[in-house]
Amino acid sequence: MLTYIPATARHHAAPVQWLSSYFLFSFADYHDKDNMQFGPLRVFNDDTIAPNSGFPQHPHSDMEIITLVLSGEVTHEDTMGNRAVIKKGEVQRMTAGTGLAHGERNETDEELRIYQLWFIPNQKGLSPSYEQKDVDFLDSKNELIPLVSGQKVLEDVVFMNSNSTVYWANLNAEKTITFKTFPIRNTFIYVRQGTIYVNGSEIGPSDQARLSDEHVVEIRAEKDAQFILIDLPASEANF
């Protein structure tokens, strides 16, 4: 089963002058009891942050927080003592666990674009931790590149405490990718640019496809396209 969610269904938030954010799930002032999560994927925010601005230090707990930098760079600082710059094509994972605080700033003169994803961890009370990796995912071609995973069959990716995997694809026009899955898994797709067909359904820029009870997900690009695909457990017992 495929559920198509158009770009217009996203919640747009601009709470401060320097931030423009699109919420794909209930978050902050946006609440929809029918759109709280998809498997363990609890938050997906598509953020644009103006130059020389950003989020002051704020707390988190019991959440796996993934940041993908699409353009620009973000300066991270947290109460674990980490201070790092995450650049375009890099991936960051922060396990909030028993609790920490962090700040995220765009300290450059250029606009910053990020996707930030929050996953419900597979256990509570984990020790806070941090990982960052240059995956260079924006330059890949015609394949699904794993970025972050808690599935131990995948190597050389950022680890997270969730039975999930985040993939990225840059798919040229008329090319096809086939992703094999199981009825006990969910698949989430969000298109950055271009147009794709997911099991025959057209998905355009900033549209979503949420799939369940599928064996195969076939993705064909009508135009050159970039998209994120997330493989998720369908049952809370498998988070």
TrEMBL record:
Co-factor remark: Binds 1 Fe cation per subunit.
Question: Which Pfam family, any one of them, does this sequence belong to?
Answer: Pirin
Question: Where does the Pirin N-terminal domain lie?
Answer: 15-118
Task: List cofactor names only.
Answer: Fe cation
Q: Which domain of life is it from?
A: Bacteria
Keyword entries, A-Z: Iron, Metal-binding
Q: What GO molecular function annotation could you give as one example from this UniProt entry? A: metal ion binding
Which residues participate in Fe cation binding?
H58, H60, H102, E104
InterPro entries the record matches: Pirin, Pirin_N_dom, Quercetinase_C, RmlC-like_jellyroll, RmlC_Cupin_sf
User: Which residue numbers delimit the Quercetin 2,3-dioxygenase C-terminal cupin domain?
Assistant: 155-232
Q: Which family does it belong to?
A: Belongs to the pirin family.
Q: What is this protein called?
A: Pirin family protein
Q: Which organism is it from?
A: Hymenobacter qilianensis
